[in-house]
Amino acid sequence: MRCSDHRLTTIGLAIKHQTPLAGRIAKRRGTFAYEGDGDCATEGRSRGNRRRQFGDGDTVGIGINLANRQLFFTKNGQRMDHTFVLDSLPSDPPLFPFVSLRDSGDKIEANFGPNFKFDLATLL
User: Fold this and answer.
1) In which band, very low, low, confident or very high, does the pLDDT at 94 lie, cut at 50, 70 and 90?
2) Domain count, the chain
3) Which of 58, 100, 108, 112 is deepest in the core (most CB within 10 A)?
């Protein structure tokens, strides 16, 4: 990740039919977000935890444990404290990943395949 202002970078998942592609997506209904300033938010409401900021060189991950319907974030392979319970969503919601960047020169690299930094075996 290379960002001009990491505090305005947001990574998360959104319910496809409820989320417009303009503006600060983390502040929208139907989103689950981790912001560069360390805040986690859902449905546009902050969780108020700014202890784990991310920025240049960090790896941020998103996971869903289907057994307990919890969504969680990771930073550099370590699971974050906050989880989102997906009880209010349909059993198979149409979620899609999103990244909000501030400037046109900001860059991220996405990995939707193997070689995750987070050890998935810890969920078993």
Assistant:
1) confident
2) 1
3) 100
